[in-house]
Design goal:
Layout: H1 15-20, H2 56-61, H3 87-92, E1 103-105, E2 111-113, H4 115-127, H5 149-155, E3 158-159, H6 190-204, H7 209-212, H8 216-220, H9 239-243, H10 289-294, E4 300-301, E5 304-305, H11 339-342, H12 367-373, E6 376-377, E7 382-383, H13 404-408, E8 427-432, E9 435-440, H14 456-462, H15 480-486, E10 489-490, E11 495-496, H16 517-522, H17 541-548, H18 552-562, H19 566-569, H20 572-579, H21 586-593, H22 609-614, E12 618-619, E13 624-625, H23 660-665, H24 687-699, H25 703-715, H26 719-728, H27 735-739, H28 758-763, E14 810-813, E15 816-819, H29 835-840, E16 857-862, E17 865-871, H30 877-884, H31 900-906, E18 926-927, E19 941-942, E20 945-946, E21 953-954
Helix pairs in contact: 24-25
Length: about 950
């Protein structure tokens, strides 16, 4: 080499450059060589000759054409920038060998491969010059779009019907905007397709093992990303769908890979439905990737689509077995997908589910569960459930009052596939305006869902959730939605009082009305089971209620729903539909006929449901239920006809009626109208409490013994009472004592069997009358058998002396005395005129002189001066009977027109101190026309006196 020259051999290449690149700086001829054979085979004749060389001198003289390139290519490397294109090809823009011209896109972007068209395209390419433009052989990405030039040339396809050389290309190494093109429409743009090829290389290098668990051996089986194949790995799942349009493999997307054809039957999100409830999700129960994608266009039946196309790999699914139970589907799930699910998806992904989300439509119900329970509803022309439609969560597939969302989310939070923080019944569906929403039940002191109480047996029968196609999942006769709406959390038992997943529940009596929940529900379909025999053709209580009070039902149901506040608000839609003439759905049909287990008085008539239920019977005379917990028109009825005309005016007014309501109120107030006679310091004393106190006083009973005595009084009335009590206490031994103790019996006129009708005792019930027997009791009490001996008005014979001679005892009928043979012995001792005596003598126990014939007064004189006139009650009811033998309920016992008080005042009939001589003193009747005695011709005979014919009429004479 010539140290004085930089190009010793004068071949146009500096000595130093030649030395660096393995050339001989003393050989002038090496400038013409193409050592790396990166020239062009222009004729493609197969003669192995390069018609245009890319010589060493050309390599040195090359000047970069992109900012990222550099001058001179490498004469030792045919592809200086390593982009897959020879240096000469890039410089001259000749890419025949790297182009696939027999595959192309139509103008409609359909991808086709055609040998004939390919041969024509090849010929055209070779016959024309400058079809392609040069790229930079020193810059692997000439347009800087992230894709190597060679990769773009390799995967580009011409567009059109015929290749002319001027066609557009699906990829162009000199157009950066092609990075975002997606010629195959798979949802994965060109740049991402390239980057997935890089992911594959990483797998081959072992770089994916730590984060993805993929070995190089596994990556060797992957396919190469191809921007012209919708499905690069041939598993029928588009690249864009498998990658979710991402340019790299996120570790969260394990199990879905556009280059791994073996993942079609994987289930990375773990969804599906455990059809046989064995706790294991087998492949036929899994919602695998293949199904997640192809649900966009197909429905399935076993090992084929509904159209009869066999599934690949002998795959069989059970998930779709029941979708046609209600009728053959007219549409796929994707046909009815909601916009929120399909928005933003490529044409090849629209309608597909999300393989990495167990709940594609984010409606709180997993895809597999929705598919298993989905049915095509012929009447509504819609799916009852759809994994691609989020609005179906608000629907109620079986019309049981429980939305689809609630049916699934009864599942234990530990087992849910959706939201562990929202389970039923703590969360429920309500409405805000016309929109649906989820709302949390405030104040519930538990996070337990219904599913937390599932038994193994129930799980084996129905799975981990409610069944949205079965109105009664647990088969206990109570609708799922009814159990949901009327449940409550029982703190002491630490359980839900009603649970659609627990068969045989409903034994709580949360409203303490004497009926357990399932008894209240049963009224919708059964006659009351209260120990009485009812005619088999008697209508159900709500049907009879419709006849008695046609408008009551709608108001009652409305009140039931709104009393549940926002929990019942959604159900008003079903109620309104019924009001507008539509047939009631399953839920409304039950609510129309049941009592509310959360409200003790469903019809708001003041009587608890249990009281009305246990004491009702079918009244054959009135052709109605005697008491009905579903209507309020029975409050003033007197089922046992035990009311009494208290004031004797011949009519029983509303205040005298011992109605069904008043019999019930005995338990609460005693007598409601005289409740204020109980001293304020004593609070409220009801008839039952008072009767128990009487047992304790009379017999020395303990409170428990007194309560048992009250129980015995009830059942000893007769066999009906025994059978009724057996039913009342059948499910809870203390039900009567807890919920009914203290009521009067509306089916029997004498609740305490003391011989005095309840209505009479109710009439005269006043608390704390002055007599010693009543100062701490109700003076008359239909539940207190001891009150027969009370003398509240103290009208007996209390001042007897040894000289007093009692009158003969007997009864008066039409003013004729009939001796009874009973005699009262002479002597000292009080003779109280008891309640029973008052009843038997038709006197009033609240008045010491019922016939008001104690009209005389005793004048008190002190020192010769009159100081007072006191009413002489010597002629009180008891003394009339015991001492005088007169009728205490008739102020003219002997009917002689002379009042008893007058005869008493005059001393007649009292020669032996007790009227028993019966001296015959009577009024003289005259003929007012003659003034003489009456005879057969008299037309007007009156008890008067007259001074001759036409004289002045005056008081009658006596004789």
């Amino acid at each position: 080499m010539d140290p004085g020259a930089n190009d010793s051999d004068a071949d146009g290449m500096p000595d130093g450059w030649e030395v660096v690149h393995g050339l001989d700086p003393t050989d002038p001829w090496d400038a013409l060589f193409d050592n790396d054979a990166d020239g062009l085979d222009l004729d493609q004749s197969g003669d192995m000759n390069l018609e245009r060389l890319w010589t060493n001198l050309d390599e040195f003289r090359y000047t970069k054409i992109t900012p990222e390139g550099y001058n001179s290519t490498d004469p030792r490397e045919g592809d200086t920038d390593g982009d897959g294109l020879g240096d000469g090809s890039e410089y001259y823009g000749f890419f025949y060998e790297q182009s696939t011209l027999w595959c192309y896109y139509t103008v409609q972007m359909d991808y086709l491969c055609d040998d004939a068209k390919g041969q024509a395209a090849n010929a055209t390419y070779l016959s024309l010059a400058n079809i392609d433009t040069a790229t930079d052989p020193t810059n692997p990405d000439s347009d800087g779009d992230g894709m190597p030039d060679g990769w773009e040339i390799e995967h580009r396809r011409w567009i059109g019907d015929t290749f002319t050389g001027g066609n557009n290309w699906s990829l162009d190494p000199l157009r950066a905007d092609d990075a975002n093109w997606d010629a195959d429409g798979d949802g994965l743009p060109n740049l991402c397709e390239y980057q997935w090829s890089v992911v594959r290389l990483m797998g081959l290098n072992g770089d994916l093992f730590q984060d993805y668990g993929e070995t190089p051996e596994a990556a060797e089986a992957w396919s190469v990303a191809d921007p012209n194949l919708i499905d690069s790995d041939g598993d029928t799942l588009p690249d864009g769908w498998e990658s979710k349009g991402l340019c790299s493999w996120d570790p969260s997307r394990l199990g879905v890979n556009p280059l791994n054809g073996s993942d079609a039957f994987e289930n990375p999100d773990g969804d599906g439905y455990d059809v046989n409830h064995d706790g294991i999700l087998t492949q036929d129960e899994a919602f695998v990737n293949y199904l997640e994608y192809h649900i966009r266009s197909d429905l399935f039946n076993g090992n084929q689509t509904l159209d009869g196309v066999a599934l690949p790999g002998n795959f069989t699914t059970s998930l779709f077995d029941n979708i046609g139970d209600f009728g053959a589907p007219d549409d796929t799930f994707a046909d009815r997908a909601s916009g929120s699910v399909t928005a933003g998806l490529s044409s090849y992904s629209v309608g597909a589910a999300d393989p990495l989300s167990a709940d594609t439509d984010d409606d709180g119900m997993p895809d597999g569960w929705e598919i298993w329970f989905a049915r095509w509803d012929l009447l509504d022309d819609a799916w009852t459930l759809n994994p691609l439609d989020s609005t179906d969560r608000w629907q109620d597939a079986d019309d049981d009052g429980m939305t689809n969302w609630e049916e699934y989310n009864v599942i234990s939070p530990l087992l849910t596939e959706t939201d562990v923080n929202r389970s039923s019944p703590q969360w429920f569906v309500t409405t805000i305006g016309v929109a649906y929403a989820l709302q949390q039940w405030p104040g519930i002191p538990t996070t337990a869902s219904f599913g937390d109480f599932l038994s193994e047996n129930q799980t084996n029968l129905t799975g981990l959730t409610s069944d949205p196609n079965n109105v009664d999942t647990d088969g206990d006769g109570m609708l799922d939605g009814v159990e949901l709406l009327f449940t409550s959390w029982n703190v002491s038992a630490a359980t839900w009082t009603l649970n659609p997943l627990v068969a045989g529940d409903g034994d709580f009596d949360g409203d303490e009305d004497g009926l357990i929940d399932r008894q209240e529900f049963a009224l919708a379909n059964e006659q009351p089971d209260n120990g009485m025999e009812h005619p088999s053709d008697a209508p159900l209580m709500h049907v009879d209620g419709d006849f008695q009070q046609p408008t009551e039902k709608a108001q009652r149901v409305f009140n039931i729903l709104i009393s549940k506040e926002t929990r019942g608000k959604r159900l008003l839609n079903d109620f309104n539909a019924w009001q507008q003439g539509e047939p009631p759905n399953a839920f409304i049909e039950v609510v129309l006929g049941m009592t509310d287990p959360t409200i003790p008085d469903t019809d708001g008539d003041g009587m608890y449901d249990g009281f009305e239920y246990w004491f009702t019977s079918w009244d054959l005379d009135q052709n109605r239920w005697s008491i009905n917990p579903l209507i309020d028109g029975d409050v003033n009825l007197d089922s046992d006809q035990d009311s009494f005309d208290c004031n004797g005016d011949g009519e029983i007014d509303v205040n005298e009626t011992f109605s069904n309501l008043r019999e019930w109120e005995s338990r609460t107030w005693g007598k409601f109208l005289t409740r204020n006679t109980v001293p304020a310091n004593l609070g409220i004393i009801d008839f039952g409490e008072d009767a128990m106190a009487a047992y304790q006083e009379e017999l020395g009973f303990s409170p428990l013994q007194a309560q048992q005595a009250l129980y015995q009084d009830f059942i000893e009335k007769g066999q009906d009472s025994v059978e009724r009590m057996d039913k009342i206490n059948a499910l809870e031994s203390e039900n009567f004592n807890r919920s009914l103790r203290g009521v009067a019996d509306p089916t029997h006129p004498d609740s305490d069997s003391d011989g005095i009708p309840d209505g009479w005792e109710y009439c005269y019930a006043t608390y704390g009358m002055d007599d010693i027997t009543t100062e701490n009791h109700w003076a008359a009490n239909p539940l207190n058998p001891w009150d027969v001996d009370y003398d509240g008005d103290h009208d007996g014979w209390y001042d007897r002396t040894s000289f007093d001679v009692p009158a003969d005892q007997g009864s008066w009928e039409n003013r004729v005395f009939a001796p009874s043979g009973v005699s009262i012995q002479n002597g000292l001792g009080d003779l109280p005129f008891t309640n029973f005596m008052e009843y038997d003598n038709e006197t009033r126990p609240d008045m010491n002189d019922s016939d008001d014939d104690s009209r005389t007064y005793i004048t008190n004189v002190v020192n010769g001066a009159v100081v007072s006139h006191d009413r002489d009650y010597n002629y009180s009811d008891g003394r009339e009977v015991f001492k005088y033998g007169s009728n205490p309920s008739d102020n003219d016992t002997d009917g002689d027109m002379l009042p008893d008080w007058y005869e008493y005042k005059m001393g007649w009939n009292e020669d032996n101190d007790n009227f028993s001589s019966f001296l015959d003193i009577r009024v003289v009747w005259i003929d007012v026309a003659t003034g003489g005695a009456c005879n057969t011709d008299t037309t007007s005979c009156l008890p008067l006196s007259q001074d001759g014919s036409g004289g002045t009429l005056a008081r009658p004479d006596t004789e």
